[in-house]
Design brief:
mainly alpha
Length: 225
């Protein structure tokens, strides 16, 4: 739904070009403020699925701000980040579901230390979280760099907000990984069903396109043909 909303903004904003200032600034302020607020909310979440959902809202704040600026780099960054985060966020929800099917709880404090039981699934958690925090050379980083550069050219003080948002994103991504995979596991979860091939295939089909797009980002950006 967030990606459909981003597509709708792209289609509607092109009809309002050039934007009237009284329409542009309130939306931009809300988008930038939303980046900080939703990222901060992620830091205090105890529900795993709620944390992932708020993470998506935070990233869409960047997309909204880039679309409103209406520059080629901004639209390219918005498209790149929507595609990249669409795959990343879906993979995170799939991982959260694999945990829930075995432990029947989404509370982070109750389920820890799953790396000892599911080492391969822990690898998927690590790769997906690193992608979520836009680690080089993922296309998530490409999209965020386009957007941050666009916003900086529009107004240099925005680098403070986007920089803080990026730091908070890295913080809650590491927090999510450590809370689900590290630490001592509860005695009630010592015996859990093993992971299935279909689950690993699902995650492969999420992360493989992200890895292949690193090789040829022009497929979604259009600037490196």
């Amino acid at each position: 739904l967030l990606k459909l909303g981003g597509y709708g903004l792209i289609r509607i904003s092109s009809m309002l070009n050039p934007h009237p200032p009284n329409l542009m600034f309130p939306i931009m302020i809300l988008a930038l403020w939303g980046i900080l607020m939703t990222s901060s909310i992620c830091l205090r979440q105890t529900d795993l699925k709620a944390l992932i959902a708020y993470s998506s809202v935070s990233h869409m704040g960047l997309v909204t701000a880039a679309i409103i600026v209406q520059t080629p780099w901004g639209l390219t960054g918005a498209m790149t980040l929507m595609i990249a985060h669409g795959l990343t966020s879906s993979a995170l929800f799939a991982l959260a579901n694999t945990n829930y099917e075995r432990t029947h709880t989404r509370t982070l404090l109750l389920v820890r230390g799953l790396q000892l039981i599911f080492p391969l699934m822990s690898t998927w958690w690590l790769l997906t979280n690193l992608t979520n925090m836009a680690l080089p050379p993922t296309i998530n980083l490409l999209g965020e760099l386009f957007i941050i550069s666009t916003l900086f050219n529009w107004s240099p003080p925005t680098i403070i907000i986007t920089g803080i948002g990026t730091l908070i994103t890295a913080t809650y991504s590491l927090y999510m990984f450590l809370m689900t995979q590290r630490g001592s596991i509860s005695t009630q979860f010592r015996v859990l069903p093993p992971t299935h091939t279909r689950e690993h295939l699902t995650l492969t089909l999420h992360l493989l396109p992200l890895g292949l797009l690193i090789m040829k980002p022009s497929l979604i950006s259009g600037l490196f043909a």
